[in-house]
From TrEMBL:
Keyword Disulfide bond carried by entry: no
Keyword field contains Transferase: yes
Record protein name field: O-methyltransferase C-terminal domain-containing protein
Organism expressing this protein natively: Dendrobium chrysotoxum (Orchid)
Domain of life from the UniProt record: Eukaryota
Length: 341
C-alpha cells in the first residue's frame, strides 16, 4: 500500500501530467524512453521538452519512475516497482491504474479545497464532497454516468487485487459456505472471483440499482437490486467489502442489523464477513500507517465515513447485536473480520 500513499502525496503531479496512462503504456514496452521519445509518443510540442523533463525527473526522484543514462549519454526513463502496478504488462501484479485514476479524478480532488470552509461549519450532515458538487457521493454517481463508470472500474480493479490476495491469505473465511450475498457488490467481480475459487458457492450481488443497471452482468451470478438499509436477500453469509467505512456509526449499525436478519444463527454457519481496514492492523511501517490515515481522511471528505480501529469495530458489532468476531488475516492494509450472530 506504499503505492497508494505515494500517489496520494503526489496527486497534483499526476493530474498535471494528465497523460499518466500513455506514459505508462510507453514505458511498459520494456525499452527506456528518452524525453524526445516521450515528446513524440505523447504529441507534446518540442518547446515543452524541458518542462516534461522536470516532471519526469521529479517523478523518478520520488520513486515513481527510474531514470538511467544510456550508453550514448542520454537520460532515459523506465518503470519503477511502484509504476509496474499501473500496467497490465506484469501478469503477476494486478494493474491498479483504474483505481488510481479514480482516486485522482478532479471530482475527488475538488472537495479537498472545501475543507477550510467545511471545518468552520457546525452542520455535520454535509460532506466536503457535497459542498463541491451539490450532491452526496452516491447521488452524484447516480446522476453522472461517466463518473459512475470511473468509480465502478476503480472498484472492480480493487476487487481483482483483493481476490488475487485472497487466493493466498484469508481463504479459510470463505471455505464451506453454501450461499453468499455480496452487499454493495458493484458489478459483481468479487462475487464472480469467489464463485470461481470456491465451486459450489452460490453468490448474489446486492446492488444499488443505478450502479449496475448500465453495467454488464456476469453469468452465473444472481443480481438483486435494492437498498441495504431496508432489507437484504437471505444467505448463509453476507459479505461487506469496503462498505462500512463509507458510513457513520449509526448507519453501520443499521446495515449490520439488516445483515443479521438475513443470515442464520452461528451454529448453522451464519456470519458476516467484513473486508475493511482495522486501523493499526497491518500498518507496522510509517508509510502504511500514513496510508490508513489518508483513507480515513478521504472517507471524511467524500462520504462522512471513517476507518476504524479494533475497539470501534467491536462497539459497532455489539451495538448491532452480534456476539463475537474474529480478525483472521490482513490483505495489505485491510483485514477480514468474521462477525458472528
Ligand atoms: C466503496 S463501494 C464498494 C464496492 C464493492 N463492494 C467493492 O469493494 O469493490 C460501495 C458500494 O456500496 C453501494 N451502495 C451505496 N449505498 C447503498 C445502498 N443503500 N444499498 C446498496 N448498496 C449501496 C455503492 O453503490 C457501491 O457499489
Amino acid at each position: 500500500m506504499k503505492i497508494n500513499c505515494n500517489f496520494d502525496r503526489n496527486k497534483k503531479l499526476w493530474i498535471q501530467v494528465g497523460t499518466l496512462d500513455n506514459i505508462i503504456k510507453i514505458l511498459s514496452q520494456g525499452m527506456p524512453a528518452t524525453i524526445s521519445d516521450l515528446l513524440s509518443f505523447l504529441s507534446i510540442p518540442e518547446t515543452k521538452s524541458r518542462h516534461l523533463r522536470i516532471m519526469m525527473r521529479l517523478l523518478s526522484c520520488i520513486g515513481i519512475f527510474k531514470s538511467n543514462v544510456t550508453p550514448s549519454g542520454v537520460e532515459a526513463f523506465g518503470l519503477a516497482p511502484v509504476s509496474q502496478h499501473l500496467t497490465t504488462s506484469f501478469p503477476h501484479s494486478p494493474c491498479s491504474s483504474p483505481f488510481v485514476l479514480f482516486l485522482l479524478d478532479h471530482h475527488l480532488v475538488d472537495p479537498c479545497h472545501q475543507l477550510s470552509y467545511w471545518f468552520r461549519r457546525s452542520d455535520m450532515s454535509t460532506t466536503p464532497f457535497e459542498m463541491a458538487h451539490g450532491k452526496t457521493f452516491w447521488d452524484f454517481t447516480g446522476a453522472q454516468p461517466e463518473f459512475n463508470d470511473l468509480f465502478n472500474k476503480g472498484m472492480a480493479c480493487d476487487s481483482i487485487f483483493v481476490m488475487d490476495v485472497l487466493k493466498h491469505v484469508g481463504r479459510e473465511a470463505f471455505k464451506g459456505i453454501g450461499t453468499l450475498v455480496d452487499v454493495g457488490g458493484g458489478t459483481g467481480l468479487t462475487a464472480a472471483a469467489l464463485a470461481k475459487e470456491f465451486p459450489g458457492l452460490k453468490c448474489t450481488v446486492f446492488y444499488l440499482p443505478h450502479v449496475v443497471n448500465s453495467a454488464k452482468k456476469i453469468d452465473g451470478i444472481q443480481y438483486v437490486g435494492g437498498d441495504m438499509f431496508l432489507e437484504l436477500p437471505p444467505a448463509d453469509v453476507v459479505l461487506l467489502k469496503w462498505i462500512l467505512h463509507d458510513w457513520s456509526d449509526e448507519d453501520c449499525v443499521r446495515i449490520l442489523q439488516r445483515c443479521k436478519e438475513a443470515i442464520p444463527p452461528k451454529e448453522k454457519g451464519g456470519k458476516v464477513i467484513v473486508i475493511d481496514m482495522v486501523v493499526g492492523v497491518g500498518s507496522n511501517t510509517q508509510t502504511s500507517m500514513e496510508t490508513q490515515l489518508l483513507f480515513d481522511l478521504e472517507m471524511m471528505i467524500l462520504v462522512a465515513g471513517k476507518e476504524r480501529d479494533e475497539n470501534e469495530w467491536h462497539e459497532l458489532f455489539v451495538a448491532a447485536g452480534f456476539s463475537d468476531y474474529k480478525i483472521t488475516s490482513s490483505i495489505g492494509l485491510r483485514s477480514i473480520i468474521e462477525v458472528y450472530p
